Here is the input.
Amino acid sequence: MIVIVMGVSGSGKTTVGKLLAASLNWDFADADDFHPANNIEKMSLGIPLDEVDRIPWLLKLQSTIADWLQAKKNVVLACSGLKATYRDLLMRDRTQVKLVYLKGDFELISQRMKQRQNHYMKTDLLSSQFDTLEEPQDAIVIDVSEPPEVIVAQIRSHVEI
Here is the structure.
């Protein structure tokens, strides 16, 4: 099974994803690690990614998810998944891929991002993330104002594992 933890930058995808994976004794992967260098450079410069930037990245993630499922690996994947079309690419088999949406308001997430150190995604790109976000209709929705351990417990109570 694959659990995709999605949301805008700063919503806690990596923190929650790592804790969830550890609690399940599963592998963890961060979709940011699949970005090519030119995408990371653009974001570091405060330039939002466009579709031309995102599609090859999403196709690489799609292929990786298919490989994990074929190998019967259990993985928690932290991935922004901001648009429905992006999620559709990643969730080909909804019986084996579950979606968790970490939902929070702009002010809370902006405050969190300002506290992060050494991350290429800068706070000034958060507006573009919220502008791009199409909230999922088919996800487990979790309020990010809770502590990460509470969020993990909530996810585990919703996902049959």
About this structure: The two ends are 8 Å apart (CA to CA). The chain has a mean pLDDT of 90. The chain has one domain: 2-158. The beta strands are 2-6, 27-30, 75-78, 97-103, 140-143.
